[in-house]
Every structure is written in structure tokens, then in C-alpha cells.
Specification:
With 200 residues, the protein is an alpha/beta fold. It has five helices and twelve strands. Helices cover 28% and strands 22% of the residues.
Length: 200
């Protein structure tokens, strides 16, 4: 059974990556601009002081412009660094000059320049992924970093959110026992984020 779900996830990853890749660069740029204007004005972001983001790549929703806007709004931006099977979290300050290429070419904090912080210091975690369902389950990239990060018990007050393209919604993501849910999911075509049924 576990092997079957694992195989399903592998097939889904290939399919959902193709779906996301089919959104043209120009269309992504336009949709992101409109979406991020809503995001920046939303209570969940305006009420968060310390926000953990991720360094987007390829056809992922572009987090770089959003992070710059959040910094300009006085937010503290935290980015992860892969350390073994876990993520270390660092305050990246003014960001780009404090980042270096990491595993798989993903930019990550330079530990010699950035201050490591605990998850308990974070208010909001932006969670990447390929597909999401309304129960809050996500299909990630298969390494389990965010499942381990968000595993219960979570620090009090910590919330997680996925910002996604509408095309990334699915009826039900293949699930395994270790899969963690995301508290909020916000599609670029929605006026506000969805509080997933797991928590509603």
C-alpha cells in the first residue's frame, strides 16, 4: 500500500509539474502581480512579523518580489537551509547578498552571514508544493522537509500557508501517514485564503 501511494505521488509530481510549466512566463508575471497586491494587504500577512519563505525556482510562484515587498513593509524574512534531512532556519536580513547556492542549486542562507533562529520565532510559514487539496494536504517534491518541519506539536501561534496558482488545485492529493496539512491555501484566483477543512 505504501509503495503504491509512493508510486502515485511520483506520477502526480510529473503531471503537476507539466501543468504548472504550461503557464507562460508572461501570464505568471501578470497573475503574480495582481495576486501579491492582495496578499500584502491581507490580515494573515500584515499581522505576521516574522515570515518564513522559500527561494522559488523554475515555474514556482515567484517569491522573490514578494519577499522584497515584505522586507519593505518591515517584516523579517526567514529562509531555510538544508541540513541533512532537516531544515535550518535563518534570518536573511537584506536577503540576496546573504544567500549562496545550496542543494540542487536552490539559493539558501549563508550560515556565516545569517543568524539561525528557531521555528518558535516564526509567525507564518510559506509552504511550496506542486498540488493541493481543500483538506490542506499537499504534494511536495518528495523529500519530506516541510512535513518534518510542520510535524506536531507545532509552536504555539505558528501558521502555515501555501500561495498557489489556480491550476494547482486537485480533488485529493495522494496521502501517507507522515503527510502534514497546511493551515491556509490561497489560490491566485481567489479573493481570500481558504482555511482548510482540517482546521475549520
Amino acid at each position: 500500500m505504501i509503495q503504491r501511494v509512493s508510486q502515485q505521488k511520483k506520477q502526480w509530481r510529473e503531471q503537476m509539474l507539466q501543468v504548472r510549466d504550461q503557464i507562460s512566463f508572461e501570464e505568471r508575471q501578470h497573475r503574480e502581480k495582481v495576486f501579491f497586491e492582495k496578499v500584502l494587504q491581507s490580515p494573515i500577512f500584515s499581522g505576521s512579523k516574522v515570515i518564513m519563505s522559500f527561494a522559488s525556482m523554475g515555474s514556482e510562484l515567484n517569491t522573490w518580489g514578494l519577499m522584497k515587498d515584505l522586507l519593505a513593509a518591515g517584516k523579517k524574512i526567514v529562509l531555510p537551509r538544508i541540513h541533512g534531512e532537516h531544515l535550518q532556519l535563518f534570518d536573511v536580513g537584506m536577503m540576496e547578498q546573504n544567500l549562496i547556492p545550496g542543494v540542487w542549486g536552490i539559493k539558501e542562507p549563508d550560515p556565516s552571514l545569517c543568524t539561525e533562529i528557531s521555528l518558535a520565532s516564526v509567525d507564518l510559514v510559506l509552504v511550496p508544493g506542486l498540488a493541493f487539496d481543500q483538506a490542506g494536504y499537499r504534494l511536495g517534491y518528495g523529500k519530506g522537509f516541510y512535513d518534518r518541519l510542520l510535524m506536531y506539536p507545532r509552536p504555539k501561534g505558528l501558521q502555515s500557508i501555501a500561495l498557489i496558482f489556480e491550476e494547482q488545485w486537485v480533488a485529493q492529493v495522494p496521502r501517507e501517514a507522515h503527510d502534514q496539512v497546511v493551515d491556509w491555501i490561497w489560490s491566485d484566483q481567489a479573493a481570500s485564503p481558504l482555511l482548510t477543512s482540517k482546521f475549520s
